[in-house]
Amino acid sequence: MELSAVKNFIRILSFCTFATAMAPSCSSKSPKPQEATDKRPNTDPSMTNPNQGTDGPTETGGTRSQPGDKAGGGSTPSKRIPTVAGTLDPDALLALAQKQPEGGIDRLLASLPAGYLGNFVLVHASRSQQMATGTRPRQILYGWDARFMLGVPGDEQAKTVEFASFNEATGLYEYGTLTFAEGGPKLDLDATKCEGCHGKPARPIWGSYPKWPGVYLDHINQIASEDQQNFKAFVEQGLPSPRYSSLKIKAAADGSSFTAVNERAYNFPNTNFQNSLQNTVSYGAFIRLQSHPAYESLKWALLAYGDFMTCRGAPAGQAIDQRVAELYSQRLSSDSAFSARYGNDTGLDAKYKLYRLLGIDPGKELNLEEPGSTATTGPGTPRGFWYGGGVTLDDQITLQSLAALAANDAFLQQAFASTLPLATQLVGKLRLAGDARFQALRSEMEYPNWYNIQNVFAPVTAGGNGAICQYLQGKITTP
Hints:
Layout: H1 3-13, E1 63-65, H2 90-99, H3 104-110, H4 114-117, E2 120-123, E3 138-141, E4 148-152, E5 160-167, E6 172-181, E7 184-188, H5 195-198, H6 228-238, E8 249-251, E9 258-260, H7 269-291, H8 295-304, H9 315-334, H10 336-342, H11 350-357, H12 362-365, H13 393-406, H14 410-415, H15 420-430, H16 434-441, H17 450-461, H18 466-475
Parallel strand pairs: 1-7
Antiparallel strand pairs: 2-3, 3-4, 4-5, 5-6, 6-7, 8-9
Helix pairs in contact: 7-13, 8-13, 8-18, 9-10, 9-11, 9-18, 13-15, 15-17
């Protein structure tokens, strides 16, 4: 039996567009084949930086433009935790461009860290403003962790690249461009220009696993037969050109496939990008959740609502649903801005309401499909939770919630005594960045996935977890 079929069987039994190609994809929730502020509680060891000890580039001088600036202004960038070794940020990108400005985009690409040149996806049909064709695809360079992503047009006459940079202080991506203009390279950090495509707050756009329309390769690293002729032409004519010659790529001569040349233990470029996005976006979402004023009161419900906890439908879960509904109704009545945004959206799942009470609209912010679409979900999953190929963003938030709460709660420490070390380990791996992440990826696949998250919860919940659900219900207070 094919491995993907085996995983499907196990799963059933257990029961502007920056990073996008074209329209959102529609797929079943099937596991993939083997292949804001910074005011966070300092009592949560799961929020420590696993990448600490490596200093990123210091800020450099350069031409920058941010919202409210005149062109060429030099305003202070938003608060940002220093970049770790092996990753970029906007200022580091500008510094590279300034070293050889006359070389333009092609010289910039040649000077990028190897981690970016060996981790990329190729978009042959894009709705972004950048050129992308079958023989001149758009490059999305995402490094080891998708914390800094660079969009490069296929047009060799273009002078602008786009980027999305994850800000660990806010949990959000910051969008901008770098243009090789007269007088030298110029950064533009006016994110409002990107909100029309990426939403507000802006987030990456990429289809739910396993379909990515407009992108070369599928989930088993094959190029669709109808696209192979164009890709073959790209390999023969485009790949040797300066725009692509720096890529670390090994392509089949017949145009049927390619792999990125890196030292990953698992080397499926699109799937690796999917996993990296999932880890970083779920981490950012959890940063934002912990920073919300209502988090201390509702964090217990956030854990209880996790699909792996299986509290939904139990008496305690129903009581939590009722309490969340009451709080949501009160918020609609007392907060005019909240009511204006959500008042006409009825019939929502309680989990949806909980996320909104905590400052995140999951249908938009936990859905990386194209804005306006509905993310592909599996049985029992509320609409809008983007699926990464084994778990949703919500599943990874559940994992982080457990690690954070159990760090200071004796009851949860005892209940999850056998699996809490695994949960803490997985959260640490989820947050690895740059060179630290690269070292881990040399020996194992991306993480955390459905199998190892399941191993955190299943041993505890398999025999019934009514006592845990009831405990979580009792901890919920009024914000």
